[in-house]
Amino acid sequence: xxxxxxxxxxxxxxxxxxxxxxxxxxxxxxxxxxxxxxxxxxxxxxxxxxxxxxxxxxxxxxxxxxxxxxxxxxxxxxxxxxxxxxxxxxxxxxxxxxxxxxxxxxxxxxxxxxxxxxxxxxxxxxxxxxxxxxxxxxxxxxxxxxxxxxxxxxxxxxxxxxxxxxxxxxxxxxxxxxxxxxxxxxxxxxxxxxxxxxxxxxxxxxxxxxxxxx
Length: 214
Prior knowledge:
34% helix; 5 strands; globular; five-stranded antiparallel β-sheet
């Protein structure tokens, strides 16, 4: 494993890019003036359920807390309190509608009961951080949801570290499919951990496939 391609070290590369040039995508909110959190504030922060923050999030918050407030993780950038929405409520919030399709994501909570935190990117598809089980690096998976046909959920990134690096374009990733990183030489092992931990498998699941899980 190349440690510069994971966790806090990868976030350092994101910070360099965003600090010098901003986000290269219109999906991401503007970051006018970073709001860093003091180490003692970060040390006392806990994810819902009392778990410690992943390395990527600790490093990012030491640089800026305002961006994730704009994304919808919490209201106060100075004293973050993470949201506690499940997958269904997070999907409703991200898609901005109360339609039948988005409401069907609540049924995935039988498989994915943990808290979700919204991220940017996509149109019919959305991304979110799923706070289930961390991988061997301490990072939590970024899932993709899609409503183009039937509601669909899959592991798209092995962590916030790789998601932010892709958003900042500091790494070049192939996204022929949502789950392409399962075969990536660097990120494949972490992707496979999350595919197993979440029960979504290497290709993700559509709504109708939940039936056989019962």
